[in-house]
Amino acid sequence: MTELNNFPVQQLSDRYNIGRSQVYTRISQLGITPHTINRKSYLTIEELDKLDYRDWETDRKSTRLNSSHSRASRMPSSA
Q1: Which pLDDT belongs to residue 60?
Q2: Strand partners for 42
Q3: Out of 9, 29, 55, 57, which residue is the most buried by the measure of CB atoms under 10 Å away?
Q4: Are strands 35-37 and 40-44 parallel, antiparallel or unpaired?
């Protein structure tokens, strides 16, 4: 039953498509401390939800910045 309430930290890089150091940076910034079971680090589902929300916010901001940059590049120059 422990597997249902825990998510392996090792799988977070693939989940968010980021490097391992970025995973630990995000975990640290959110004040999350992974717990260990049999020498492997895990997050609770609630902690995973926090990371998911942070990832969603980051993607949303990135998309917004990229789309406004794209619009600016399509505008005719005033020269």
Answers
A1: 76
A2: 8, 35
A3: 9
A4: antiparallel
CA of residue 63 relative to chain centroid, distance: 15
3: closest CA among 33, 32, 45? 45
Find, among 59, 54, 36, 57, the residue nearest to 44 by Cα: 36
Q: Let me know: does 12 contact 23? Beta carbons within 8 Å.
A: yes
- Whose structure tokens read 């005719």? 76
**10: amino acid identity, one letter:** Q
**Per residue in 22-57, pLDDT tens?**
999 999 999 999 999 999 999 999 999 999 998 888
Q: How many other CB atoms are there within 10 angstroms of residue 25's CB atom?
A: 12
Tokens of 72: 């600016």
pLDDT value of position 1: 42
